[in-house]
């Protein structure tokens, strides 16, 4: 039995290190059969997605990878939509690092400066255009660094909202779920997404499904649900979630759904570090390689 080099070369042509590793490890008929079976499976998946075998797509930052769908936004001026709920003193870190008021309307989620009624340009999100929503811990006490305009990232305290920070026509209803900011925002986001006909659900990290063995100095009693790393020269955090892998919180934020992951490989393995390469199938209608 011989290795199926036609398929292996078609799949891993840009990665000679992987091909060399397969050649070294294919010592027995059983291992050769396993490598051929893997090659057949991946090659078939690539074909199903309309991707030529020799043109696998590496995940890169770009339109469609940051959690904002490409659908058309509702017509009209967001400022003219009645505000159903607004929450003051929310620390936004993406796209601008500043405290804003977050406003929930029938058609939009947007940020505005305190004491104003006009949405901040570039911080208006139609409910029908939201593709992903996450609730994750902040790995550090303070975050730094810019991020792309498309996603909205904000942090909330672990305490209850302060008196007078919640307003809008639905503030009375919101009071019943305002014991914590988490409860308030889960309720408000789910309520508005459902009303907009969206099936997007908030995805939270779960230490029972994944956690790091590295102790957190600032949270010694909590398990870290992320792994520190670098993308190029920029440091950040990998969150392994039940729906995919999220890289944050530095620019660019990237989310890779599990269904799009084509292959995962490891290179430059040293004593305490290694490189991880995640390759993904292109999104439907995405012409980029």
TrEMBL record:
Any one GO molecular function term: nucleosome binding
Domain Histone chaperone RTT106/FACT complex subunit SPT16-like middle, first and last residues per copy: 224-284
SMART domains per UniProt: Rtt106
Any Pfam family hit: Rttp106-like_middle
InterPro entries on file: PH-like_dom_sf (IPR011993), RTT106/SPT16-like_middle_dom (IPR013719), RTT106/SSRP1_HistChap/FACT (IPR050454)
Function (record text): Histones H3 and H4 chaperone involved in the nucleosome formation and heterochromatin silencing. Required for the deposition of H3K56ac-carrying H3-H4 complex onto newly-replicated DNA. Plays a role in the transcriptional regulation of the cell-cycle dependent histone genes by creating a repressive structure at the core histone gene promoter.
Quaternary structure annotation from Swiss-Prot or TrEMBL: Interacts with histones H3 and H4.
Official protein name in the record: Histone chaperone RTT106/FACT complex subunit SPT16-like middle domain-containing protein
Species the sequence originates in: Cordyceps confragosa
């Amino acid at each position: 039995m011989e290795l199926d080099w036609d398929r292996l070369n078609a799949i891993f042509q840009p990665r000679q290190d992987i091909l060399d590793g397969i050649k070294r490890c294919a010592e027995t008929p059983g291992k050769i059969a396993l490598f051929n079976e893997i090659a057949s499976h991946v090659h078939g998946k690539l074909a199903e997605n309309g991707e030529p075998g020799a043109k696998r797509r590496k995940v890169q930052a770009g339109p469609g990878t940051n959690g904002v769908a490409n659908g058309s936004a509702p017509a009209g001026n967001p400022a003219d939509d009645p505000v159903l709920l607004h929450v003051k003193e929310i620390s936004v870190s993406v796209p601008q690092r500043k405290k804003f008021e977050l406003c929930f309307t029938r058609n939009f989620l947007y940020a505005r400066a305190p004491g104003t009624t006009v949405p901040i340009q570039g911080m208006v999100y139609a409910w029908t255009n939201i593709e992903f929503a996450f609730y994750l811990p902040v790995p550090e006490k303070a975050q730094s660094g810019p991020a792309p305009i498309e996603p909205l990232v904000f942090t909330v305290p672990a305490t209850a909202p302060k008196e007078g920070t919640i307003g809008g026509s639905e503030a009375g209803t919101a009071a019943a779920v305002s014991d914590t900011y988490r409860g308030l925002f889960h309720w408000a986001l789910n309520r508005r997404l459902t009303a907009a006909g969206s099936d997007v659900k908030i995805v939270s990290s779960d230490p029972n499904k994944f956690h790091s063995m590295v102790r957190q100095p600032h949270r010694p009693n909590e398990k870290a649900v992320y792994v520190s790393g670098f993308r190029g020269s920029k440091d950040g955090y990998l969150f392994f979630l039940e729906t995919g892998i999220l890289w944050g919180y530095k620019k660019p934020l990237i989310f890779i759904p599990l269904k799009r992951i084509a292959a995962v490989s490891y290179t430059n393995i040293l004593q305490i570090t290694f490189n991880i390469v995640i390759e993904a199938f292109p999104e439907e209608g995405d012409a980029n390689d």
